[in-house]
Amino acid sequence: MNPGVILQLDKVIHEKGRLAIMSLLAATPELSFTELRDTLQMTDGNIVTHIRTLQEAGFVAVTKQFRDSRPLTTCQLTAAGRTAFAEHIALLEQIVRQNRPQSR
């Protein structure tokens, strides 16, 4: 196994909670804060912290607006986020391939 591949994993994305957020957003154009929180069963504070980290890295865009006179916060992957997520998944796939038992 090539340990260099593991060292290439993006630490911002690789954390379990952030990887889950990125995975959900990669599969959907946009999700509300509530949808993310409820789907991932995270506390408000926990998901806010993860979203902020992803936003600061330029991977997630956050939009705050009002819908039916109620505040609505939505998140979506940025172009940089989509690229970073795709690269992260490719590295994970490479790690899996390198660690599969060889067929005889």
Question: Could you please describe the fold and organization of this structure?
Answer:
The model has no long low-confidence stretch (mean pLDDT 93). This protein has helices at residues 3-7, 11-14, 16-27, 33-40, 44-56, 79-99, and strands at 31-32, 60-67, 70-77. It has one domain: Arc Repressor Mutant, subunit A, CATH 1.10.10. With 104 residues, it is an alpha+beta fold.
Layout of helices and strands:
Layout: H1 3-7, H2 11-14, H3 16-27, E1 31-32, H4 33-40, H5 44-56, E2 60-67, E3 70-77, H6 79-99
Antiparallel strand pairs: 1-3, 2-3
Distinctive features:
single chain, 104 residues, alpha+beta, Arc Repressor Mutant, subunit A, 3-stranded antiparallel beta sheet, 6 helices, 17% strand, elongated
Biggest sheet: strands, sense, closure? 3 strands, antiparallel
- Uncertain regions spanning at least 5 consecutive residues: none
CATH-defined fold name: Arc Repressor Mutant, subunit A
Summarize the amount of helix as a percent range.
Answer: 55-70%
Q: What is the SS-derived class?
A: alpha+beta
Please, what is the CATH homologous superfamily?
Winged helix-like DNA-binding domain superfamily/Winged helix DNA-binding domain
Write down how many β-strands occur, each being a DSSP E stretch of 2 or more residues.
3
Q: Which strands sit side by side, in order, in the main sheet?
A: 1-3-2
| Strand proportion | 15-25%
State the order of secondary-structure elements, H for helix, E for strand: HHHEHHEEH
CATH secondary-structure class: Mainly Alpha
CATH architecture: Orthogonal Bundle
Report how far the terminal alpha carbons are from each other: 19 Å
The overall pLDDT average reads 93
Task: Output the radius of gyration.
Answer: 16 Å
Number of domains: 1
**In DSSP terms, counting alpha (H) and pi (I) runs of 4 or more, how many helices?**
6
Shape descriptor: elongated
